[in-house]
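ok so i was messing around last nite and threw this chain in just to see what happens. nothing serious, just curious
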Amino acid sequence: MTIQFDETNNAFLQLIQLFVTLGGQIIEQKKETTKYNNTAMKSLKTYLIVLLGALVLSSCNTDKSMTSKGVNLSKYEYASLVQTRNAFGTATDIEIEPGIYDAIEATRLQMVGERRIEDLSSEQKEKLVLVKYSATSTPKESVLSVTFEDYMTGKVVASCRSSNRFALTRQRDVDRAIKKLATRIEKIWK
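result:
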């Protein structure tokens, strides 16, 4: 059987050739689009993972600082670290108290030992804040809070809270929470 090519067959062959060419181009476009879609999907997945990670990390931060309305913090010159409200127990007091003491000492406040408060004059006592702290820890989070109370009135004039989550160990959680708390204390009493 022989095929004769006339103008009709030639047009038909050109049409087939056009379909094959277009089909090849479509397949190539599809491959590129698929590559693009795969790349776009990978980028989107990466973006979503980063966004989710940022949300998780931002939820880890429950740090706060507050000062009472109408209180002039500049009048205070002395601080005394007193009575702790602590859920950790004695061993953690040893870890936390020096960090808080150091943070307060790094401010403009002059530290006064609890036993020396009675040696202060009435004028000095009016410039004294009592510093009380509490700490709690779970396997997931360590939370530290500090309150500053006016010695004469007992009013809380400032407070700050710091926490840390997801450290490899409880000790690292506590250490990081202390560092963040120290930063907050310094900002309040600069």
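not much to say yet. The helical segments are 7-60, 90-105, 122-125, 170-188.
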